[in-house]
Here is the input.
Amino acid sequence: MTAPLLRVENLVKHYEAGGLLRKEPPVRAVDGISLEVGRGETLGLVGESGCGKSSVGRTILRLQEPTGGRVLFEDHDVFRLERGPLRALRRRMQIIFQDPYSSLDPRMTVGDSIAEGLEIHGIVPRLERAGRVAALLDEVGLDPASATRYPHEFSGGQRQRIGIARALAVEPSFIVCDEPVSALDVSVQAQVLNLLTDLQERRGLSYLFIAHDLAVVRQIAHRVAVMYLGRIVETGPTEEVLARPKHPYTQALLSAVPVPTPDGQRTRIILPGDPPSPSAPPPGCRFHPRCFHPKKDARCSAEAPELRQLGTQMVACHYADG
Amino acid sequence: MSAFLEVENLRVSFPSGGKAIHPVDGVSFQVDRGETLALVGESGCGKSLTSLALLRLLPPAGRIEPGSAIRLGGEDVLALEGEALRRIRGKRVGMVFQDPMTSLNPVFTVGDQIAEGIRAHADVSRREARERAVALLAEVGIPDPAARATAYPHQMSGGMRQRVMIAIALSSGPELLIADEPTTALDVTVQAQILEILDRLRRSHGLAVLLITHDLGIVAGRADRVAVMYAGRIVEAATTAELFARPSHPYTRGLFASIPTLTGPRTRLTPISGNVPSPAAWPTGCRFRTRCPQAMERCSAEPSGVRLTATHRSWCWLAEEPPA
Here is the structure.
């Protein structure tokens, strides 16, 4: 087996809390997660708000500094890189956000926004830039004439296409997609999902696809990792995890998804309460206060379960079985 | 016997560049006690403006056009003024919105806010209102309600705040509950809790529920009937079972083909091409024709509603009435 494109080992990201006078416990957004993304592969990272999934994406790219752990990308130890080499590496690792509007400068034309990366990284000679921008716009399904217009003239779906063109401009091999379709209407969401799939096939891209919507993840991800309160509770091939979830949290998450089928819902597990705060995670298994597993016992509140192999999946639960 | 809420030919206009646009343009539906009608559509289809128009809560520039009719429990809402209108808004109808934080007052405890709602519409003592507020918090599934009544909104999670909003909506003993994207901002596990509560209240209080959502998945589990909106109009209306088993309008079918699923074979999605046009640029005739894969010449004329069954209508020239 060849080495994965991206390997994340025991990543930790804590945020300091409190002010000058009062120190509060840090928010343990990401608390020791490991994952791999292969070439041309999509890993879906799913979880509810506050589980730390977006922090994972941003810390991998060093858009924020890590608290601990290691990230290996194309043989580079990302957290040890100096400013210069890190900048060069950014060309290979890009990110697209939920709201592309916030990442596009409203006073810059779409063409200038896309060309910015080409210029910074000296990718194509000045005279060829306009042609490259036009080709990129065409590739993401926009009229090349859009280059002279401004972001506010476009709909949400079109702006997401612009965000994708901007990320593609620097020819990355890996893109963190942070909830890229969450703000879009379903008819447009499908267009963007198809576009991301096509681009992956054409360019051999790898994606870390961060989302809260399991059906969207099923549509695009080869493998999936489910996060709860800063930890991965289950990971494996998407089809297997979604068809036969083994961690009680994955089971509850799946059963809560409203399904647009004639008979409506399947058996529904309604979890009590809300996810606890990541600044004071419960001891032992972080899911234990909401867990409904019949074998739940004192061990669950004392000892944090490690991920272990169960068939095709890795599951962090003391009592999950095959 | 007429339904509790009847809306007929509702048209809402806004001035735009010297002309009037009609983001809601001839919408008719009914909701009866004890049933949930879902109004489904993508952003800009007019579903939220429709719900605001029902209580005459449109933004200042908005106007309900002559010829529109809204009847609530037999009362002509459009003829009401002052105190009578206020009575309808606060008492007979409860509203729940997507973002409870913007509707809750940050400087009062949630218990006080619910009690205030109770005292605005019923002649009860402060203490009695307080007790009722705690009972309402218990009813919407808030654990330890007496203690939580003393909490401020920012001390609660999004799911808890939405429960408080539902408690406030219930405080006046309404007959109709309008829930506008009530779970859109919530995580799925919390969303399931809230939908469960709304459903339980519908049954126990015999509420008429108007559920406004963009999510067909929510509709499947919770609504008795569905009306699909596109560009200011209802394009298809049916029982939930009928709509999911035999969607008729090309827009409804396009929506279904766009939604990724959790089960069944994983196939490439079939999106609807293009974007939703803005109200200023709605096409004549069938408004979906510019994006419809089956559009034909006839579609430039306004389609009339075709009755597929007693409870299923589709506003499309391709829909055919079953042979008698």
